[in-house]
User: What shape does this take?
Amino acid sequence: MPREEEPSPRPSPFRVLSRVQETPDTVTLTVTPQDGAAPPPSFDPGQFNMLYAFGVGEAAISIAGDPTAPERLVHTVRSAGAITQALSSLKPGDTVGVRGPYGKGWPLPLARGKDVILVAGGLGLPPLRPILYHVLSHRDEYGRLEVAYGSRTPEDLVYYPEIQQWRSRKDLRFQVTVDTAGMDWYGDVGIVTQRLNDMRFRPSESVAYLCGPEVMLRATAKGLTERGIPPDRIFVSMERNMKCGIAQCGHCQFGPYLLCRDGPVLPLSAVAPYWSIREI
Ligand SMILES: Cc1cc2nc3c(=O)[nH]c(=O)nc-3n(C[C@H](O)[C@H](O)[C@H](O)COP(=O)(O)OP(=O)(O)OC[C@H]3O[C@@H](n4cnc5c(N)ncnc54)[C@H](O)[C@@H]3O)c2cc1C
Assistant: This one.
């Protein structure tokens, strides 16, 4: 969707309102502009912000909240290195720098009237969650809503209380699977691609949105293609290393694309030719 406001290239100070420990290494932060500051620009599902941990550095983090409530930005952060560790350690009342939103998000208008398929692996669920909020608040504009979410173990599942609510609804189907689990897990065990055959959708009337590790993206894209969804109706979010977020530094070059500007969401038909090239 075109928007009038260009995001500022400088981080603005935001205050942390809440911090939820999702898993041992992952937290969800809700942030809002410091008192008196302008509200943040609206965002499209699939866009990301650059979050600045003061004195440490900046990282690209997807926007995981409700697009109808952009004044409260929600970000889910997994502690991977110095920056995400510093972001994960923020507490309510702390300040974080935010610039964005950046990138091209999920093309939702394409899915109007069609079945919507979301497949998430690991931390792929946060960038897909705004689609869920959007489709559920415009439910009669879309067909079936099928979601499959896989993580390594039950302890790695994010948004677990909300998943329970989604699973109790009749207007979407939300499958959860884990690679391995102990005796106290009563759900499905196996990789997320094994859930694809269970999904119900009209192949020629469906749009699929995928996010997760690249190996999972490739396998899921292959499975959905084999079930008849055309490659230009399958979209993937390519969360490669990124530095500037504004198409200046070239860190996120992927074939002819700069993922911060042309992505992170791209159709499978654009991505697939470059997946087979090892150096890319
Ligand atoms: C568009 C986009 C959206 C993202 N959304 C999120 C999000 O919602 N939540 C979140 O926690 N992270 C997200 N990331 C990843 C996040 O930006 C990186 O994990 C972060 O920059 C790492 O910085 P660091 O200093 O903490 O770790 P570093 O020291 O830079 O890296 C630590 C380890 O993580 C690896 N790594 C770094 N970046 C990535 C990456 N993009 N993918 C896989 N491995 C990586 C490094 O190779 C290294 O092994 C996103 C990345 C992109 C490009």
In short: The chain is about 20% helix and 30% strand. The chain has two domains: 12-102, 109-237. Residues 48, 59-62, 76-78, 80-85, 123, 126, 239-242, 264 surround flavin-adenine dinucleotide (CB under 6 Å).
